Amino acid sequence: MSVLEDPIDILIVDAVGERHASYRDMLAGTARRVVARAPGADARQLYRDGGFAAALVRLDGAPGGARADLAAMLALCDAAFGPPVIVIADEIPVGAPSTPLEYLPAPFVSELLANRISCLVARGRLKSELARRDVLVSDLVEKVERATAAAAEERRTSETLRERLSEQIHRSKNLLAIMQSIAQRTMSEGREISEARDVLLGRLRTLGRAHHLVSEAGGKGIALADVVEAELADVHHRVATSGPKVRLSASVVQTFALAIHELAVNAQKHGALGPDAEGSVAVGWTFFECGADRYLEVAWTERGIAAPEAPPRYGFGLTLVASFAGGSGLAPNVTFDADGLRCRMRLSEDVIVAG
Fold first, then answer.
1. Long-range contacts of range 90-97, CB-CB < 8 Å, 24 or more positions apart?
2. Which of 137, 143, 199, 279 can bridge 305 by disulfide, Cβ–Cβ 3.0-4.6 Å?
3. Domains of the chain (ranges, CATH numbers)
């Protein structure tokens, strides 16, 4: 006779009460407790309450009640991991194939019953253990997947931060180089120290505003209108702006902002935006196509005042503005006509950011 390591509780459902004691003898050493009941509500309630490792239902004697108990037990038990139900009958009963139903023909040898119960209970325990392991493996796999996803996200975040840091270092180096160039040009243009200081501070403030716009954009491009608005904030009531929504790459924002700043300063000192002048400025931008080239043209137009004569040579500001003439270098994209200064600056498509 097979003996389980841990004694178990077994439920017996048999209409013949005289046989109840014999089950205890047959299952001695296998079962810790054998509970025998006649078919009926009490037997079904015991099975429903649980705690049994197996249930034995004998269908002879009172087949109607026992079959009802069998049907109720099969409805209660788990199709995969519930306690097995062993049916003792003259023939295999018709039952749902998904239920854990076992059949033992009558009459039977007592040792066969004990061995069958031991095997079924051991198999049930193995299934339960495998199910628990499957749950643990599934949980471990889920944790590994989450950890892998978190590590991938961490790598992406680190790469993004590294790229931004590299861009920031690059912009800082460029900014320092531009500041040195501006300081050198400003101090070498023959101005008095106090005037040179004011001019230099104005240019440095422009660089600071441009740098702030680039940093706030986070690499997504800076709206051209924001650059123009930042540089013309003090005279906005005398300036009209128009143009489509355009975003500039960080590489051109600082020099473009400086160009707008220089035009504004020149207009306030010598042109349409002077304190005694009654002129105005229009700033507009439009896309143009010339053959295979597509570019953005920014037009600065002063009205309402006669512009001074063209200077014999360009200083820092006009040289910077002229650098936006496109492929023609220092072409006359700055003109001084009877109605005021006019300027057309060209931005190539490679400095325009989508969106």
1. 90/59, 90/60, 93/59, 93/67, 95/70
2. 279
3. 8-135 (3.40.50.2300), 219-353 (3.30.565.10)
